[in-house]
Amino acid sequence: MIRTLLRHVKEFTADSIKTPICMVAEVIMEMLVPLLMASIIDNGVNAGNMQHIYKVGAVMVLVAFLGLIAGLLGARYGARASTGFARNLREAMYTNIQTFSFANIDKFSTAGLVTRLTTDVTNIQNAYQMILRMCFRAPITLIVAMCMAFVINARIASIYLAAVIFLGVILFTIMKFAMKYFSEAFKKYDEMNASVQENVSAQRVVKAYVREKYETQKFHTASGNIYTVFLKADKLLNWNGPAMQLTVYTCILLISWLGAKMIVNNTLTTGELMSLLAYCMNILMSLMMLSMIFVMITMSMASAKRISEVLDEKADITNPENPVYEVADGSVRFENVTFRYDVHSERPVLDNIDFTIKSGETIGILGGTGSSKTSLINMISRLYDVNEGAVYVGGRNVKDYDLETLRNQVAVVLQKNVLFSGTVLDNLRWGDENATEEECQNACRLACADEFIEKMPEKYESMVEQGGSNLSGGQKQRLCIARALLKKPKILILDDSTSAVDTATDAKIRKAFATEIPDTTKFIIAQRVSSIQDADRIIVMNDGRVDAIGTHEELLARNDIYREVYEAQTSGNGDFDEIGGEA
């Protein structure tokens, strides 16, 4: 895990080395100050030697200045290294997420990925800076101060040693129990982010159903869970302060009492006692820093594990060694295909699918909710890989193709229409970033999107809000179809993508497809029989299996499911799912 993260320090290695060097220099300067102060008291003040006071005082100012410079440089290098490290982690995670197949993405929640890219990376950034600065500064201060104290007076310095052991045991015990709470806390962050994301993206539905109070309560619960977990952790960590205070004041009292007796007996000077008290504070402050480091590292270990999970996740769909970079045509063949989302599941999502589609055919797909229509077409563009059998496009196994080549030739308009903030042209050019405005307009004519775009204030330069919230469902569907057409694909898949448009517009779109892109193989998933009855062939799906394949007339004559759907819809009694066709 640590090795995975440290690979992303990259160009900030030099800063990561300079930071502890500067911290060591700062510690050395700080440790000289008590010795110089002791010299001023013993050889200057007590001896009445003003020249010695001026001389040593000047050296103290120089030492303090050098310590200040070292501290500032350490802070600068540490900040640059930690922020750069955080930037690289975010970029590495984001880049790796882009390679994920749907199966990889299914392992992480959207909110969980957002938390990893934000909160978890910030924790790692803070911990890394703390490690570079305090993890070197505190132990070195502790060791050097302890050594200096033993050089001055071993008997009094033994008090420090006992204090270090006592605090070490306390801190270790606290951290051991606090770790489990921090690990639990970040899972609660995922839940809260999921609540926020769901609420914001579905604001229209929330307001339409007057569910603001319910959503507020749900967020309150999620936020309260985080509060509860951190409160438990903080209750443990709060023992740091009392333990530290107890140790500090006990050490000061013991050193003062023992030191005063030794001064009376002339075995210790006043300056040496002052130095010992200064080293006492240095040692105990170092322990306080170490406790802070332990807290930060304890929190960051949970974050580091979560980040490593994303970085170590390998895409399960990758290019072959010698990929094919050209798709010959739009022919599609399923050869005894079986697929499971979970390989350990007994019941497959797709079971022994076998059919052949010629290039340029229009294929309708009909089936109830849960009949695996979408799963079927996901196999074509290799969004998932089959468990058994094979899928062929253009006469080649989809696993032989370069992924980018294959997906550029298979345009999919998904059930959920996704548009991005920007102009209409910006959204259309997702299909082809180099498309001219004329090509965009032509694609919109085919998708019947030009009808409403021409009525918009800025036409093709009109702004689309995030998610297309300023467009109707039918308008979003038509824009997404136009965007897919700009790819000039050999295979076009419409996954229930005309459900929000009226039947007249649906008919226009289908007619445009037949006349303008006759060589493109078209798969149309629909619940309305009218949307697919003119298709060359229709596939009826039922419970993950192909129940029948044929023309509209053939299926009416010999397939009970298709005939029931057709009769239900033409008689005005409802659609497929309302008559009990759900698988």
Give a short overview.
The protein is α/β, with parallel strands linked by helices. It has helices at 2-6, 13-45, 50-99, 102-105, 110-152, 154-201, 203-208, 212-237, 240-264, 270-312, 373-378, 403-409, 424-428, 437-446, 450-453, 473-485, 503-516, 552-558, 560-570; strands spanning 332-339, 350-357, 362-367, 388-393, 396-397, 410-413, 422-423, 463-464, 491-495, 521-525, 537-542, 545-550.
Low-confidence sequence ranges? 573-583
Strand count: 12
Give the helix level as a range of percent.
55-70%
Number of helices: 19
Oligomer: single chain
* Rg calc: 35 Å
Structure, described:
The chain has 583 residues and is of the alpha/beta class. It contains 19 helices and twelve strands. It has helices spanning 2-6, 13-45, 50-99, 102-105, 110-152, 154-201, 203-208, 212-237, 240-264, 270-312, 373-378, 403-409, 424-428, 437-446, 450-453, 473-485, 503-516, 552-558, 560-570, and strands spanning 332-339, 350-357, 362-367, 388-393, 396-397, 410-413, 422-423, 463-464, 491-495, 521-525, 537-542, 545-550. The longest helix has 50 residues, at 50-99.
Key words describing this protein structure:
583 residues; 10% strand; 62% helix; alpha/beta; four-stranded antiparallel β-sheet; six-stranded mixed β-sheet
